[in-house]
Write a structure and sequence with these properties.
By secondary structure, the chain is an all-alpha fold. Among the domains are: 56 residues, no CATH class; 93 residues; 100 residues, no CATH class; 39 residues. Helix content is 74%, strand content 0%. It contains 29 helices and no strands. Helix 16 runs antiparallel to helix 17. The longest helix is centred in the C-terminal third of the chain and has 36 residues. The protein is elongated and about 140 Å long. Keywords: Membrane, Transmembrane, Transmembrane helix. InterPro entries: SCO7613_C. This is DUF2157 domain-containing protein.
């Protein structure tokens, strides 16, 4: 028969065990642990229960009356519903906790009341006796399995021990200690007793009391002595010893409580040490006067948990990173109170040193120098950002556009730190980032671009001529665009965008000089041309086509500005250049860029003209002619005829308004005539596929509706006569040619005109006339209806006769 309890078999993996072995050779199970003995006892009990169940089953008669198809176990009765309220195990805990509290309160009352009338011997005997009895009884009960009772009585014994020490001090046996000293002595006695009880009984309460008692001991010593750094360090070490002892004794509560207490004391030591070092942040005070000792001790004590457990690799690396970071702060702390340059140089040294270390350590250990790198990067990044902002402001804070000369210099910004730190700090930050992340071509190019920008920014922090900064930015943009053109992936798009940004920055810096701006615009035209026809990256054609007309217009404008051409005459050459470019390359991106450039140029030039309306009319005419020409030259751009016509009509209207023309026909009839001519040409080329409504409707509507609206306001005028004659001509011509559009437009406009002419006389007609007219209409309709019904009946009778 198989047995559950087998002393020669491993209870975990069932491997055979040799004689006198403490661990299973197969699964490394600890067979010498007290829990192993308890497990063997439990399995032995299970074997005994199995034997008793087999005997009881053999004594019962075999049931044969009811056939069964398969063996079944007895039906399990549902578990009873758990009653609400306290469980059975909670009751003794509550009772014993209250009992322990009552015993401690009674002991305190005993000290307060009975201490005066008991002699020294009696008092000593009572207190020591109660302490020993409660402690021994707690140990005995814990060994017999009554752990709750053991917890309560051992807690009472420890409390009584504290009262014993206090009573001894009051009796003068300890020399009347001060309160902090008494706290330290009492906590020390309780700590020793709690550790002894925890090791003997493995109860949880003594383990917690031991952790708290060590804190009391340290607090008392802090007040007694002035060497708080030494006390705090010793308490942290003591907590580490407690944690190690707890792990050695296989205790569960003591290691956790000791680690928590040690962490609190270590944090206090670190904060206090940092505060002290900050208050004395000079080299002599820190290292010669010893104000750095607490911070150094905290940095070294951060590694104490490794003496207890080094199995968790992540925890080990985190503790080492914390310790090295604190040591780094300790070394670099004297630079905090110095100038921004000194602080940045210190951060730069820290960042560079730990970057080198990061390259040397394995990948899974890079978190250790990474924390120290971050600490060094903070002042470096702050200095770099500040210098970059100053460089940008200095480069852009120049004279008004086109008001300076080519040799104009930048101002001296008075940088917050040495200008060279902008490039050096940026290079160090880029190197640190590339060390921590996997390197790729994209990241390397991005880092190189950032370093190049920092070099230009360093140049802008000096009072140099603006053309030097502009040239540096233009060269950077050209290099980026040249590399982007040869690429066919998204990296090329990113490089092209970065190059465009560099060109834009070069334009902004060189804007005070028209000649310098024209040179940059010419370079942008060349770059856009290369991207448009040679770029292989996604979107190169569209990007180049969009930028090309803008850059070409900018070049023409700035070149004319450098040649001292008046502002009012600069926009017409720009319109001509971008218009001809759009005609030569009829593509959407080129047309959009050209339209934007033309609008901007005209918007600047027209307000500067002496005769604003005439200048606006000229610009609208040129723009409309170019747009219409593109529609006529390219069959695929016929839709541009509409905006071209609108621009030409707008030019005509502006000119008519400037001449004082107020009649609407002067504004509408030219455009209407143009639309009618286009419609007639279309009907001539395709008379069957195009309706007259689509071909002639827009022109006829534009020719009649504005005049009709004017006539509705002034019905008695020569305009009304002419409009009526025109409507009659349209109706007759439409009837003659069988075109619906002239008939519909002429009849509608003529009907509205006739009704408007009738309106002044409608009020003078007597009411009986209106009633008579209504009755006549109704009578005619009724007679017509009856006549039609009679015809229907005659037709039906005729059909029946046919059947």
């Amino acid at each position: 028969m198989a047995r559950y309890a087998d002393p020669f078999s491993c209870p975990s993996c069932s491997a055979r065990l040799p004689v006198a072995v403490s661990r299973c050779p197969s699964c490394r199970l600890d067979l010498g642990h007290p829990l192993a003995a308890q497990l063997l006892q439990t399995l032995t009990t299970a074997d005994d229960l199995l034997v008793r169940l087999q005997v009881a089953s053999a004594e019962q008669p075999t049931a044969t009356a009811v056939p069964v198809e398969r063996a079944t176990y007895p039906a399990q009765t549902p578990a009873p519903r758990q009653p609400r309220g306290l469980s059975g195990a909670s009751v003794p805990r509550i009772l014993l906790s209250l009992g322990a509290l009552c015993l401690l309160v009674a002991a305190v009352i005993f000290l307060a009341v009975a201490w005066t009338w008991l002699g020294i011997g009696g008092r000593t005997a009572v207190l020591v006796g109660l302490t020993l009895v409660s402690g021994e009884l707690g140990v005995v009960l814990a060994r017999r399995g009554l752990r709750v009772a053991g917890e309560a009585l051992t807690t009472v014994s420890l409390g009584l021990l504290a009262l014993d020490v206090i009573g001894a001090d009051n009796a003068g046996w300890l020399g009347h200690l001060s309160d902090p000293a008494l706290l330290a002595v009492t906590s020390g006695a309780v700590l020793a007793a709690a550790v002894a009880l925890a090791a003997t009984t493995r109860l949880g309460a003594p383990q917690l009391v031991a952790a708290f008692a060590l804190t009391g001991l340290g607090t008392g010593l802090l007040v007694v002595t002035e060497r708080w750094q030494l006390v705090a360090a010793l308490v942290v070490v003591a907590y580490a010893v407690l944690a190690a002892a707890g792990r050695t004794l296989h205790l569960t509560v003591l290691p956790v409580a000791a680690i928590a207490g040690g962490a609190l004391w270590w944090a206090g030591l670190a904060v206090g040490g940092l505060e002290e070092a900050t208050d004395h942040a000079t080299w002599s005070e820190l290292w010669l006067d010893g104000h750095v000792c607490a911070l150094l001790a905290a940095a070294l004590l951060a590694l104490l948990p490794l003496a207890v457990d080094r199995s968790q690799g992540l925890v080990v690396r985190g503790l080492v990173a914390c310790s090295t970071a604190m040591l780094t702060v300790t070394v670099a702390l004297p630079a905090v109170d110095e100038t921004a340059t000194t602080l940045a140089v210190a951060g730069l040294a820290v960042l560079a040193s730990w970057t080198v270390v990061t390259r040397l350590v394995p990948a899974d250990w890079r978190v250790v120098p990474g924390v120290s790198m971050a600490l060094g990067a903070l002042p470096v990044a702050a200095t770099v950002l500040g210098l970059a902002a100053q460089a940008a402001a200095n480069a852009l804070d120049t004279a008004a556009p086109f008001s300076g000369s080519l040799g104009q210099r930048l101002a001296d910004p008075g940088p917050l730190a040495a200008p060279v730190l902008l490039a050096a700090g940026t290079t160090s930050l880029v190197a640190a980032v590339l060390t921590l992340v996997p390197r790729s071509v994209t990241r390397l190019l991005a880092g190189g671009g950032v370093v190049a920008v920092s070099l230009v920014g360093t140049l802008a922090l000096h009072p140099v001529p603006i053309w030097t900064v502009t040239a540096a930015l233009a060269v950077l943009g050209a290099a980026l665009v040249a590399d982007a053109v040869r690429r066919s992936d998204q990296l090329g798009s990113a490089e092209a965008a970065a190059g465009g940004t560099a060109y834009l920055a070069a334009t902004a810096v060189g804007l005070p000089s028209a000649t310098l701006t024209a040179v940059v615009a010419a370079l942008v035209v060349l770059a856009a041309t290369v991207v448009r026809w040679r770029g292989a990256f996604p979107g190169a054609r569209e990007a180049g086509g969009l930028v090309l007309p803008v850059a070409a217009g900018g070049f023409v404008w700035t070149a004319l500005t450098a040649a001292d051409v008046a502002t009012e005459w600069r926009a017409l050459p720009v319109l001509a250049v971008v218009g001809l470019l759009a005609i030569a390359l009829p593509q959407l991106e080129l047309e959009l860029g050209g339209a934007l450039t033309a609008a901007l140029a005209a918007g600047v030039a027209v307000p500067e003209a002496v005769d604003g309306p005439t200048s606006l009319a000229v610009h609208l005419t040129v723009a409309g002619a170019l747009v219409t020409a593109s529609a006529l030259v390219h069959p695929g751009r016929r839709v541009l005829g509409w905006p071209g016509g609108v621009l030409l009509a707008a030019a005509t209207w502006v000119r008519l308004a400037d001449l004082g023309v107020q009649a609407p026909e002067g504004y509408t009839l030219p455009s209407a005539a143009a639309l009618l001519v286009l419609g007639l040409v279309r009907l001539h080329h395709d008379p069957t596929a195009t309706s007259t409504a689509r071909a002639l409707g827009p022109g006829l509507t534009l020719a009649t509706v504005p005049s009709l609206l004017w006539v509705l306001l002034d019905p008695v005028s020569p305009r009304a006569v002419l409009l009526g004659a025109g409507c009659l001509v349209l109706v007759l011509l439409g009837a003659r040619l069988r075109w619906s559009a002239p008939i519909v437009v002429g009849a509608t406009a003529g009907l509205l005109l006739v009704l408007r002419e009738l309106t002044p006389y409608a009020a003078d007609v007597p009411q009986w006339v209106l009633i008579g007219i209504a009755g006549t209409l109704l009578t005619v309709v009724g007679i017509t209806w009856e006549h039609r019904m009679r015809d229907v009946r005659y037709a039906a009778g005729y059909l029946r006769q046919l059947q």
